[in-house]
Amino acid sequence: MATKKMMLYINGSERMLVCDPETDTLADVIRRLGLTGTKVGCRVGQCGICSVILDGAVVRSCVKKMKNIKDGSKITTIEGIGAPTNLHPLQLAWIIHGGVQCGFCSPGFIVSAKALLDTNLNPTRQEVREWFRKNHNACRCTGYKPLVDAVMAAAKVMRGEMTMEDLNYKIPADGRIYGTGYPRPAALAKVTGTCDYGDDIGMKMPDALHLAVVLPGVSHARLLSIDTSEAEKMPGVEKVITHKDVKGNNRIMWPCGHILAKADGFDRPILAEDMIYHRGDVIAVVAARTRAEARAAAKKVKFELEQLPEYLNILETMAADAPQVNKEYPNIYIEAPLIKGQDTRKIIEKTPYVVEGSFYSQRQPHLVLEPDTDQAYVDADGVLTIHCKSLFLHINIFTLAPGVGHPAEKIRIIENPTGASFGYSLSPYMPGIVSVATLATGKPVTITLSYEEHQHITGKRAPSFSNARLACDEKGKITALEYEIAYDEGAYTESADVIAQKGLRFVGAPYKIPNAIGLCKTVISNNAVSTAYKGFGSPQCYTCSEQLMDMMAEKIGMDPLEFRYINVYREGDESINGNKFSVYPMPQILDRLRPYYKEALERAKRESTPERKRGVGIACGEYNVTSAPNDHTEIILGLNPDGTVTHYNNWQDQGQGADAGAVVHTYEALRPLGLRPDQIKLCMNDTALAPMHGPSAGSRSHYMIGNATIHAAEQLMNAMRKPDGTYRTYDEMVAEGIPTKYTGVFDTTGMTSDLDPNTGQGSPTAEYTFGTFLAEVEVEVATGKTKVLRMKCIADVGVIGNIVNVDGQALGGMMQGIGMALSEDYDDFKKHTNLAGSGFTFIDATPDNLTTEYIETPRPSGPHGSSGCAELFQSSPHVAVINAINNACGVRIYELPARPEKVKAALEAKARGEEIKPRKYYMGGDLHEKIDYIKANPFTPKN
Ligand code: FES
Ligand code: FES
Predict the structure, then answer these.
(1) Cβ(105) – ligand 2 distance below 6 Å
(2) DSSP secondary structure string for all residues of 735-774
(3) What is the homologous superfamily of the domain 1-194 according to CATH?
(4) Which of 145, 337, 487, 706 is the most buried (most CB within 10 A)?
(5) How sure is the predictor about 258, in pLDDT bands with cuts at 50, 70 and 90?
(6) From ligand 2's centre to the CA of 208, what distance in Å?
(7) Cβ < 6 Å from ligand 1: which residues?
(8) Tell me: domain 632-747, CATH 3.30.365.10, correct?
């Protein structure tokens, strides 16, 4: 190491520093100086998270080596742009326009935008977008549109056409903030770079050891031996941890709660023992003084493997002669039926129109910009304290305790400010790794995965294979549906029980289908573990049924919208699970869409050329609100001595705006007290400080916490109310011995019922959301490249609690839907190890013309009429794109994603008079035989 002193002008002041010009990057140096507003994501120059201004130009500091920086250079980081008490217009605009969701990208974008406005104070939207494209600024949450809105608004302020006050949020005259764009309290720290995320917390933690993981590099093998001796001798190494050092049973306890499961859910080891079942199985963990030392030593851990055949496609593991992959349970370990109405064979025989198809949806990676990061330590009271991205804090205590060997009552889990998860952090796997490491070393530990490690270790959206047949009568009314869907659950059974339900609920939604049979299977492979991802389990269903809807419309010569219109649920209709709904907004949603759709069709016709064909597609979607039967949540409201109220909750914030949600619910529920919104304080996401909420999943949080908040607010106000109707102060309450804290509870017991294991009939969740997506695309015939030109969502998620938050979920959901349709995948273990290689949806693949409209039908059981919202927006937008491709150029892409080469091949086949379509997938047997067997031999639960 050649250490060198340098002088740099950072944020206007001269800074002396010492670095290694060969190995240090600019990001390393400025973060070591404490300027951790500059975040680091991909570390390879793809995401722009680490952007700073160097001598007037935007640079990605993670790939800028210090040897290439001149002494005396001028550097501006996010901290030099504005401070919490003195915001730059860009920072305020970012807050107001919803530029901050997880906020991990915000510093990089704001720095980049500042450099643009320094040279062009009057840019067009296109110039802003082009600037962000050129500077590689990536965002996974927002759909980019709010970011461009923010730059345009800030530029207006900077040009003197608007004041900061004009730009700022104002409480409406009637004092009601519910439904407005009330800004997120946490956004201030995120736009100023003062918010510490996991990696920042880890590097500032005293005496922390840095961890590095050892991965097998193969997907299926016997692990014969591990030799840590050489690694242990490496500089700075404190310990090399293997499964032998784990104090507990070394299992993530994730009970496979499905009543039909043939696995118990205790199959995922924290550290590999004798088998490797996928590339993300961690063989050993090195704990060392620095990250570099830990990584260097990890390369010295030797292990011997006996390579086994890798089963990377569940068509292989479902094959009749497939060997059993995991010795504990069969390859198809959940097989759950749906049976509704009459025998579909007889109905279909008599029905004039039948379409059928087979469809595949890919292993979509979450592609968060912050790779997984976790910290752990044992505090002075012997409490194992874990900082992580968990979206299910309390339950993770119980899923970890036996595995790591620490009593549950002595485990505390804290959610760090999180650079998004979109669902993958449902898994307690990485929290398990840091727990084991801190217990084995007796020291605080921290880890931030490289992007490649993150890709291999974390869960993904389960790929799906489906075969389906849809029938309808002469009038276009659906008469029957038959389908089977198999989810590739990867190497372990984690969360398979949940997805097995989804496959029985969303194929064919939101349409009235009187007769249906279905089989949903979860199947093992040697792939990444399947986990929650926004829309969990439903995009796979819509990949099948929303394409079938278009195929049927074409077959009977009806317009796809009008075919859907006559079949969507109307008042009193039942889903295929036999449940009724509290609201029936689908006809209204399609009525609202119709004029836009017609306009889009005309535009496509007008602008289509033989070389660039344009088309329009739609897809409908429905998603549940609440996660399972008998859902439960608790929060606490506490009156403080200064008259403010604190909301204690574990509404895990993955970027969706839990903080703003908690404020608007509390403010609305406590309106009689006349508080200002800033008098509502938050204490969130720490199991030691707030009660159990349950997961931030299933679009449940706004609904569940809102109802619990109303319950707590009623109790608090009743306690504060004096006989004359005025309210006691805190001091008066204390003087009279009246408690100042109240627990609000909401529970859906009695509102829901589990799906019947023999028929799939039931109503497992309390509420639903509905919507439709309209996509306009252009297909370049020569290359097959598809560009989405516009996308619109019309949705009903009940009364909106915060319009900026809901819009943010919708825009981000549509963007990730475009990614699912066209490019994103984790399938190739060499290529899909980074953002760009995995087909990340950058700004140039996301149209600026992303729009939303809402029909706000109040939900009778919802807080203030609201439900939840997030997941609907990623239910079926991808199918709107796929249907639009078909409308543009007459080819249907049955197996996603619709990469250019696939579309091109389909076009070429069409020119030859052929069609590329998958043969019916074999899924372990004949659908009718299985259903007949289940009917004859119903499952009887044992006591
Ligand atoms: S470009 Fe530097 S972290 Fe991604
Ligand atoms: S807000 Fe941009 S990555 Fe989350």
Answers:
(1) yes
(2) HTT--SEEEEEEE-TTT-BPPPTTT--SB-SSEEEEEEEE
(3) [2Fe-2S]-binding domain (1.10.150.120)
(4) 706
(5) confident
(6) 28
(7) 40-43, 45-50, 60, 62
(8) yes
pLDDT tens readout for residues 769-784: 999 999 999 999 999 9
Residue 254 has what pLDDT?
A: 76
CB of 625 closer than 6 angstroms to any ligand 2 atom: no
- Percent residues over pLDDT 70 in the chain: 99
Among 71-75, 497-501, 801-805, the least confident range: 497-501
Whether 710 has a pLDDT exceeding 60, the answer reads yes
**Residues 6 or more apart whose Cβ sits within 8 Å of residue 720:** 639, 673, 727, 728, 733, 738
For residue 800, report the distance from its CA to the centre of ligand 2, in Å. Answer: 22
> Strands 373-378 and 445-448, how do they pair?
antiparallel
Please name which ligand lies nearest the alpha carbon of 420: 2
3-state class (DSSP) for residue 909: helix
β-strand pairing of 284-288 with 209-214:
antiparallel
H or E stretch including 549?
helix 538-556
The tokens for 859 are 């939900």
Going by alpha carbons, the residue nearest to atom 4 of ligand 2 is 102
Distance 27 CA to ligand 1 centre (A): 9
| CATH class of the region 582-630+763-911 | alpha beta
Give the catalytic positions in this structure: 871
Q: Mutate which of 58, 62, 842 to test ligand 1's pocket (most atoms within 8 Å of Cβ)?
A: 62
Give pLDDT tens digits for 84-115.
Answer: 999 999 999 999 999 999 999 999 999 999 99
- Judged against a pLDDT cut of 70, whether residue 354 lies above it is answered with yes
User: Nearest bound ligand to CA 135?
Assistant: 1
pLDDT at residue 256, rounded to an integer: 66
**Local structure of 915: helix, strand or coil:** coil
Fold agreement (582-630+763-911, 632-747) = yes
